[in-house]
Amino acid sequence: MFVAIFGSVEQGIIYAIMALGVYLTFRVLDFPDLTVDGSFVTGGATAATMITLGYSPVLATLCAILAGFIAGSITGILHTKAKINALLAGILMMIALYSINLRIMGASLETGIGRPNIPLSNADTIFKSIASFWQGLGIDNAINNTLHSMGVEHTPNTWGTVFFMIIVTFAIKFVADWFLKTEQGLAIRATGDNDKMIRSFSANTDTLIILGLGLSNGLVALSGALIAQYSRFADVQAGVGMIVSGLASVIIGEAIFGTKSVARTTLAVICGAVIYRIVIALAMQIKFFDTGDLKLLTAIIVIIALVVPNIIEKRKERKRKSKRKAERLATLNPAKKEGEVNA
Prior knowledge:
Structural class: mainly alpha
Helix content: over 70%
Order of helices and strands: HHHHEHHHHHHEHHH
CATH class of the largest domain: Mainly Alpha
Shape: globular
Strand content: under 5%
Low-confidence stretches: none
Distance between the termini: 76 Å
CATH topology of the largest domain: ABC transporter involved in vitamin B12 uptake, BtuC
Number of domains: 2
Radius of gyration: 24 Å
CATH architecture of the largest domain: Orthogonal Bundle
Oligomer: single chain
Largest sheet: 2 strands, antiparallel
């Protein structure tokens, strides 16, 4: 059980980068971007193909971010310049990316024919390098021995991945917090809140939307590239339902931790992604469920995350109304009694 939860935390931190990208489009820009399902695979396909061809994993990951940025920017161009509905623009780009991703992965073959997956079992990846470096420090043995003394039988092979991803994910979070407070970031937030108002100040909302979508899908592609290296394979179907997972992470995080500030919200999104993966892992431990029920569980979790906060808010509102009513009655009763005495 401990190893299963630990694996979920590792994956959750990597998927949190994707959730931050979803947060940028759905919450900041108020843009229903379905490109995510395609750009996630684009990141994984680009990184896996370049690693297979002998390029550095770091360079491959950077190129994956660029590929995701381009995909998101094209979605923005379709919406702003071609005047295509936001939802439809995302769907069109997602469909196009399916064939593009097959072509990208096919580049790893001499024939160049599209292929649906790329194994990375024997390839050098970022996480393989991190594991080698981390083992040399001897920290794994110290942590695992401590857990064994506490009664934990099964422990993970390495703790390097989780510590590395915590550093990377929070570095991205702090950069996002800083960017959203800059003049350009504030303009993007204003575009999501009220594009007509920001346009009245001579701001180019088209450029802001394209930039926002590009940055969002760049983060999604980064997550896809890291997941491909983490799981040691890239698959063209890996992005199916990814937008729902991202939304679930955002909704769960906001419901539990709140949204009082940008910094708090981005932290909530990261925590939401980890909690979502842990819940999925715990649910899959139930014998009734099998791997084919994963999407059903995802849908149920999202429904619960949407419904429960509304129910709680309604109850709080009823309590506030009851309290205000009681206070009004309390102020009216003394005045009524005073009038009766005077009479």
